[in-house]
Amino acid sequence: MSIYGSYDQVLPKILETTRMRIQQLNDQVVAADQPKLYEHLIGRVKEPASMEEKCRRKGYPVTTESALRRCRDAVGLRIVCNFIDDIDRCLTQLRQADWCTIVKEKDYITNAKPNGYRSYHLILDEETPYTDIEGQNPGHFFVEIQLRTIAMDSWASLEHEMKYKHDIKDPERISRELKHCADQLASCDVQMQTIRQLIHEDDEGMGQ
């Protein structure tokens, strides 16, 4: 049996509901004549085997309770934005949303990981129409949100691919190159943000 037990059928529904709610936030922003919040929205329910491995790695019992309450990333969505300030705009919308509470934040953009990884992580507590593991209905479930720029997401995909290759001849060099690439992409993100601001300043100037 899956580590998720009877919640195997519930988690995909929570994923889809969260995806729709975030899409609605974007639609509202666009309807107000503001730039879209994101370019891509990618979701997944963590594979049961991956969740079991995480529980063991963290020293948790391999149980449904551990998967849904201790790990808190059984359901996950990645919001891929065009610009750094779009991440801030997404955060503002999520903090104001009445359908969730943010219970944890980790800023790996301001404070990148040593290997160069950059992203902003949130854990949402969402109220749902499904009975949760404590027997509450409406039930509460955790959803992990990762916010990245396109550049950050491209780098993370490459780093993830390298992490699971076991026959790399010179892993130290690969790590150095990846870190150098991450720094360059971070600089590019800042430059793109500056260009966007300059364009908007020109637009405002023309409107006066």
In brief:
The chain has a 5-stranded mixed β-sheet. It is built from 6 helices and 5 strands. It has a single domain (5-157), classed as Beta Polymerase, domain 2 (2-Layer Sandwich), CATH 3.30.460.10.
What key attributes describe this structure?
208 residues; single chain; Beta Polymerase, domain 2
Question: How would you describe this protein?
Answer:
The chain contains 6 helices and 5 strands. With 208 residues, it is of the alpha+beta class. The protein has one domain: Beta Polymerase, domain 2 (2-Layer Sandwich). It starts with 10 loop residues before the first helix and ends with a helix.
SSE arrangement:
Layout: H1 11-31, E1 40-45, H2 48-58, H3 64-71, E2 75-81, H4 84-96, E3 100-107, E4 120-128, E5 139-149, H5 150-163, H6 171-207
Parallel strand pairs: 2-5
Antiparallel strand pairs: 1-2, 3-4, 4-5
Helix pairs in contact: 5-6
Order of helices and strands: HEHHEHEEEHH
CATH architecture: 2-Layer Sandwich
Distance between the ends: 65 Å
- Helix-strand category: alpha+beta
Strand arrangement across the biggest beta sheet: 1-2-5-4-3
* Tertiary shape: flat
Quick one: biggest sheet? 5 strands, mixed
Total of domains: 1
Number of helices: 6
Number of extended strands = 5
Reported by name, the CATH topology is Beta Polymerase, domain 2
What is the CATH homology-level superfamily?
Answer: Beta Polymerase, domain 2
Indicate the CATH class: Alpha Beta
Task: Please give the share of residues in helix.
Answer: 40-55%
What is Rg?
A: 19 Å
List low-confidence stretches: none
Strand content: 15-25%
Mean pLDDT over the full residue set:
94
